[in-house]
Amino acid sequence: MSLSVLSVASELFPLIKTGGLADVAGALPGALAAQGIATRSLIPGYPRVLRALEAAEPVLDLGPLFGGPARLLAATAAGLDLLVLDAPHLFDRDGGPYAGLDGQDWPDNPQRFAALAQVAARLGQGALPGFLPDVIHAHDWQAGLVPAYVHYWEGRKPGTIFTVHNLAFQGQCDASLLAELSLPPQAYSIHGVEYYGAIGFLKAGLKLADRITTVSPTYAAEIRTREGGMGLDGLLRDRAGALSGILNGIDTDVWDPANDPALPAPYTAETLHAREASRRALRARLGLHEGREAPLLGIVSRLSWQKGMDAVLEALPALLGHGMQLAVLGAGDRGLEEGFERAAAAHQGRVGLHLGYNEGLAHLIQGGCDALLVPSRFEPCGLTQLCALRYGALPVVARVGGLADTVIDANEMALAAGVGTGIQFSHASRDALEAALARLAALWQDRPAWEKVQRNGMATDVSWARPARHYAALYRAVAPGRVPRV
Questions:
Q1: How far is residue 92's CA from residue 16's CA, in Å, rounded to a whole number?
Q2: Phi, psi of 19 (to 5 degrees)
Q3: Which candidate, 36, 366, 370, 430, has a CA 20 to 30 Å from the CA of 118?
Q4: Same domain, 202 and 284
Q5: What is the pLDDT of residue 55?
């Protein structure tokens, strides 16, 4: 059965990206095509998006939308079939998708992303001639009102899937905006969009979508606990029958060490010696000394407490004590940025730092580091460890969320069985990370075992093929004529 799906996301790689949501929204449509699913992606018309369009045709006049005219553009870019919400008064501004150049959230974010959700719901009702999606797949809080509009508005009701990429970002606004956001009075209740006296975009999606997914089985379990539920655990336990954990994949054409233009030399699991060119290039790029007596570690991450970056700084003396080096790419909390700046200045040649994000450097770190640190305190799925597996860098990860689901700990029994793909440790603390670094140093001394773990990781299927099959099954379950809502 062929299905038509409208994917709704606030960012989409390679057009606009702040995190893993963009990677997922950009890669999943291609994988779904093999499952007989035709996907069109609705995204905001940020300046960067409009500049990237290969061809754009106005297809729908949306009239006034939150204070200004809006229209829908049909376009293609990077092989994606796009519908772009062109509303300059909402999206044509300097800064990022969610915040200005000063780092402060745009004050009209509720209206901006309600507009995106309203257009999605109108498309679900057939507003665009020739396009009638069977299912709307809404991603994260920015699209959280999509299920609410489908639920409360009169008209056709396509199936709805809501994916949580990170429960920590919930999208709340003042309850006085209910009418302005075109939500009826009955929507403001515990059974609707009300959340602790406010309107909750994420809560609306969780409550009113036909099915909920999150991006790993372990995270789906964690968010149903008081410790991991961030105030939504009761709702998620109540809707446990509608909740699925589906691991993310990565685009294995974009992330392919055998054909990566960001690397100085290609390599495969059979030519691991060719990684040395990337290692040398990475050291040169970040000013690190040459040497092979200990592993070169990499970090590609937001520099935040959630990502455990404070634990890395606390464990840095132990890391250096093992003779290891550290290459860091990221940005985030200013206090942590300053901590890594001090570390790089104090340990020149041993700690290299690039503040910000650079896609080419991210690829070079994956190809050039020996191991990748991912010490998150919670991690819905994580993509960087999947890239590390693909590139033969041993992921060293905290045992949480998708990190626990994707990395097989190379403990003694796993090594004996030949199945380990990285190193897990219990939680993001100095002591736990130091113990993991000691294990890594010991494994480094056993070169055949190290290379076996590398090859195991590179043989792991980190593509979208398996996740796409799971999503296709969910779409078919909620399409019109579907089974009753759970």
A1: 14
A2: -170, -165
A3: 36
A4: no
A5: 85
Instruction: Tell me: do 453 and 471 sit in the same domain.
Output: no
Residues 276 and 211 occupy one common structural domain: no
pTM (2 decimals)? 0.91
Residues 124 and 175 in one domain: yes
- Reading across the β-sheet that carries 243-245, which strands appear in turn? 55-64, 69-77, 80-86, 37-44, 3-8, 135-139, 159-164, 211-214, 243-245
pLDDT digits (tens, 9 = 90+) for 39-88: 999 999 999 999 999 889 999 999 999 999 999 999 999 999 999 999 99
Per residue, the 3-state secondary structure of 101-115, as one string, reads CCCCECCCHHHHHHH
User: Is the domain of 344 the same as that of 433?
Assistant: yes
pLDDT on residue 486? 56
In a domain, 167, yes or no: yes
Q: How many other C-beta atoms are found inside a 10 Å radius of the C-beta of residue 102?
A: 6
Which SS3 state, helix, strand or coil, does residue 86 take?
A: strand
Q: Are residues 55 and 155 in the same domain?
A: yes
- Residue 407 to residue 344: CA distance in whole angstroms: 29
* Predicted pLDDT at 198: 98
Q: What is the pLDDT of residue 97?
A: 96
- Are residues 292 and 437 both part of a single domain? yes
Q: Are residues 224 and 297 in the same domain?
A: no
Is 17 among the annotated ligand-binding positions?
yes
CA torsion through residues 345, 349, 351, 356, sign: positive
**Domain boundaries, position 62:** 3-249+465-478
